[in-house]
Structure formats: C-alpha cells, structure tokens
Write a structure and sequence with these properties.
This is Fasciclin domain-containing protein. The chain is built from 9 helices and 9 strands. With 182 residues, the chain is an alpha+beta fold. Helix 4 packs across helix 8.
Length: 182
C-alpha cells in the first residue's frame, strides 16, 4: 500500500509539474528558457557571442532585459563573419555606437511575432509582408518553400534557421545573415 501511494504521488507530481521545459529550445549548445529574458538566454549561446558583444557595446542590454515584448532576429557568429573583414571590429568602437545601434535595432520588432504570425502575415498579403523595426526601418518577410526569409532595405536576404525561441519578454528567431538598414 505504501509503495502504491508513493507511486501515485510521484505520478501526480509529474503530471502537475510546469511544462516550461516543453518550450525550451537549444540554441548554440545552450538551453533557451522561456522564463528568462532575451539577454539572460543569449549570453549562453556559443553561436551568438558576437551579437552579445555588439549589444553590450551599443548599450542595449537594459532595453533587451526590459518587459518588451520584442521579436528579435538574432544573427549568428557565422552571419557576422559574412560581413567584410574588419566590419564588426569597426562597429563596436565607441565612435561608431550610433551606427551599431541602428543595425542592431534594425533586427528588432516591437511585439511578439511567432513564426505562425509571420506566416499569416505573408499569406494574407501579396506573398510578402513589411515589418517596422525599432530602428525605424522596414524588413520584408517572404516565404519560399518551407522557409521564412527576411529582406533588408538594401536587398540583402536572410532566412530563419531556428524559429520561436520563446523568452519571458518576447521571442528570438535565429537568422543566418546580418540585415542592414539604408
């Protein structure tokens, strides 16, 4: 009887346990917890060390730790490596903080837009939709096959490699290229 009660309690505890882990995704070798904010998660991703360093250099940490919600299109280290040699080193210099901030906030949209929300925007229009970025620019979302693409104001393209990485203050979509405003 005692064993039966223990087993019943264990099963009840498991059944009632929070399902937060069901939404946890792995990015850059680290778990991204939906209970943590964008910065708390991003600092653990080995694929986003350049982005985190740039966010720190631009002074955007307090903003991305705030309530939001935000949709962040997060370029990987590999995405930053596609830029011309020396670009990142130049951008993180204090005298280029304004340009760096504009580029980083071009990757952020106010509100929480899931991949399903982005697909819906694309399907209800002409096969593409415009997003207003925090920097004041526009990103175009397009679908091609099973992928969602982002096109920047200069015609550069990126696609979402990992979608719907939920955060306590928004959502991150990992992208494979740095998007550039005009």
């Amino acid at each position: 009887m005692k064993k039966l009660i223990i087993v019943a309690l264990a099963l009840a505890t498991f059944a009632l346990a929070p399902k937060a882990n069901a939404q946890t995704k792995m990015v850059g070798g680290a778990a991204m917890y939906p209970t943590k904010n964008i910065v708390e998660n991003a600092v653990n991703s080995k694929d986003h060390t350049t982005l985190v360093a740039a966010v720190k250099a631009a002074g955007l940490v307090p903003t991305l730790e705030s309530a939001g919600p935000f949709t962040v299109f997060a370029p990987t280290n590999e995405a930053f490596n596609k830029l011309p040699a020396g670009t990142v080193d130049n951008l993180v210099k204090p005298e280029n903080k304004t340009a760096l901030t504009k580029i980083l906030t071009y990757h952020v949209v106010a509100g929480k837009l899931s991949a399903a929300d982005l697909w819906a925007k694309v399907k209800t229009g002409t096969g593409k939709a415009e997003l207003n970025t925090v920097s004041g620019g526009k990103l175009t979302v397009m679908a091609k096959g099973k992928k969602l693409y982002l096109v920047d104001e200069k015609g550069g393209k990126s696609w979402i490699t990992i979608a719907d990485v939920n955060q306590s203050n928004g959502v991150i979509h990992v992208v494979n290229a740095v998007l550039l405003p005009n």
